[in-house]
Amino acid sequence: MNTFAPDSWPTALPLVAILRGIEAREAAAHAHALLDAGFDCIEVPTNSPNWADSVRTIVQVAGQRAVVGAGTVLDAAHLAALLQAGGRMAISPHTDTALIADAAARGLFVLPGAMTASEVFAARKAGAHAVKLFPAGNLGPAYVKALRAVLPPALPLLAVGGVTPANLGDFLAAGCAGAGLGSDLYRPGQSAQDTGARARDFVAAFRAARPQRQTP
């Protein structure tokens, strides 16, 4: 069983590619595009068609080059299907402490969503390895800075929701370790070439904000 260290990000680049709505038949092409751009963390939300098949395909494509997981994980059935597909990361939009503890006990990297300090601390106590601040775009970097001031310094906080290449640096400067990237990275129906180009824009924005951080 895979285990992950607490209060640490498991990959070199703390950017999660969110492929919401992707079809299993196109998952391999988009996975290749993301990997070539330097991404090493890929999520397929459970409200995507045949999501477990997409996770399985991306796991096969990525091998050891990326941590692959599912988003919008809501219950134990999702966790079981994720593990069967070979996924290693469980991402949820909310703070469900029982679900967090279950996912951690199964050896998954657990990234739940939270908005308040109380939710973040509850998630961490339940076994979360990192926390995503959602919806970050509505809350803004100033909220991140205020929240970060009371959180454990080592706990990775990712901005998710409304993050673009233009504002990624602001969220990093406010105290986020990285971000989850949705519609500004991938939208259903776009080509793998477009996904690769958008991924390179995000990697460039991350490197510009964190020039000392070595990324693929």
By secondary-structure content and strand pairing, the structural class works out as alpha/beta
Write the CATH homologous superfamily.
Answer: Aldolase class I
**Biggest beta sheet summary:** 9 strands, parallel
> Separation of termini?
26 Å
Uncertain segments are none
Return the CATH class.
Answer: Alpha Beta
What is the residue-averaged pLDDT? Answer: 96
Order of helices and strands: EHEHEHEHEEHEHEHEH
CATH-defined topology: TIM Barrel
Radius of gyration: 16 Å
CATH architecture identity:
Alpha-Beta Barrel
Number of structurally distinct domains? 1
Content of β-strand: 15-25%
Give me the side-by-side strand order of the main sheet: 5-4-3-2-1-9-8-7-6
